[in-house]
Amino acid sequence: MLTLLHTSDWHLGRRLYGKPRYDEFKQFLDWQLQTLREQKVDVLLIAGDIFDTTAPSNQAQNLYYDFLSQVCHTDCRHVIIVAGNHDSASFLEAPKQLLKAFNIHIIGSMTDTPTDEVITLSDKSEQPELIVMAVPYLRDRDVRTVGHGERLEDKERKLTQGIKAHYAQIADIAIAQQAQLHAKYKRSIPIVATGHLFTVGGQTMEGDGVRDLYVGSLGSIGAEIFHPQIDYVALGHLHIPQAVGGQPHIRYAGSPIAMGFGESRQQKQVHLLRFDADPDLLSQPLQTLTIQKKPLVSAPTPVKKRKSVSHASMDLFADEALPEPSMLGAINAEAGINAEVDAQASSEAQYDTPSDHLSGQVSRQPYNIAKLSDTTLLQSLPVPVFQPMQTLKGDWQTIKTRLHSLKKSQQSVWLEVVYDGQEVVGDLSEKIAELVKDSRLEVLRIKNQQKRDQVMQSQRMDESLEELNPTQVFERCLIAHQVLEEQKPILWSRYTEVIESLQGGQQ
């Protein structure tokens, strides 16, 4: 039996409103190492966006290389890493030859020799066990020829054609290798493909931190680009775990850590595949196959209804957009996304009682198990929440009540507070700071919606730059220049990237 773990979109080094998150990343990587050992994983596949920027901080790099060194001390025989749109291909590939000696295979960009993107993995006895189509994030310049005076529609059509043609070429090579191995060893070797792209119907959520550099043109890439002979497609880029086109073998793993407050409502996952699973295992009731883990810290309880998941042609990197509906409950309030995101594959985590959420205990319920074939089993493992996050939205009384409730829970919670009451609260920040004093609550962002459109007109004349942080300065600039609401997300995206790049360089 061959066991493969599919994960993606770590975004190591990402900050949240300037707040470093290295402790979270370390806890996730430790949990993943534990999972590799417990599940006896043979192949680890990371489908892009390992880092959050093309110039990751020293601390982010240390986390990455320390993790890889520890993987070498597990039973995991192979690691496949493909670059995402946030990664620097040259940076990832710099130690490529050295890491290959440890069976860590890295593909940073489309190769000049297509066969280099087809990797055949061997078992302990040096027998072939898996063929991987290791396709990284395909950039415009990789797959599209530029024509003088061509229209936007022509550019998008050429880009789509280029991506389809590349996958077809790599699939032909992989299938030919599969046939050769079958003739030699008299057994079928499964094929797994990777991808870091936006597929048609791909679901995103407001504030999920995803961005599409092609401004939606990748939305035309459908599941048909993946050859039917491919046994599993491991995708990255979208942060919501989901299947593509209703096909359970084509999946996004999603981000393992919430990249923004909107994502805090999701139950994060990694995907575990077992090829050539034992017949006895496959024939057993699914509930007996459940893998139980105790979260390191409390995990969010999924909601019964999902409000805002958008099939956006352009996904956003900024955290500006606020989640709907409002999250007014305490730590154990309803959170997450509905299984509508992936009706077949995204089963909701269950908790015995609300108190289980606070105590970190998970009930013994089967979590997202699917049989992809007569010999292949897939299970999505829930990732613990390492840093609880929550948005509080309402009038002053509502916010005050919720803060008191959270304070009593004695949990470490990062908060986004959105005031939308009618009463003018000029000293909102001071009042909130007083309420969370001497607690484990940390308010990362305060948004006064009641005064939002008037903040520049009503601001104090003596307000100086020294009193404001970079985020506040930029927000005031947007208001002062009357920037349209639909233009703000992309501007926040670019601004956040610049700030985080500067901050990362200081690490």
Q: Which terms would index this structure?
A:
seven-stranded mixed β-sheet, single chain, six-stranded mixed β-sheet, Purple Acid Phosphatase, chain A, domain 2, 2 domains, alpha/beta, globular, 507 residues, 13 helices
Blueprint (SSEs and pairs):
Layout: E1 2-7, H1 22-38, E2 43-47, H2 58-71, E3 78-82, H3 89-93, H4 96-100, E4 104-107, E5 118-122, E6 128-133, H5 140-143, H6 152-185, E7 191-196, E8 204-205, E9 232-236, E10 242-244, E11 247-252, E12 269-275, H7 279-283, E13 309-310, H8 354-359, E14 369-371, E15 377-382, E16 389-394, H9 396-409, E17 413-419, H10 428-436, E18 441-448, H11 455-458, H12 470-480, H13 488-505
Parallel strand pairs: 1-2, 2-3, 3-4, 6-7, 7-9, 9-11, 16-17, 17-18
Antiparallel strand pairs: 1-12, 5-6, 8-13, 10-11, 12-15, 14-15
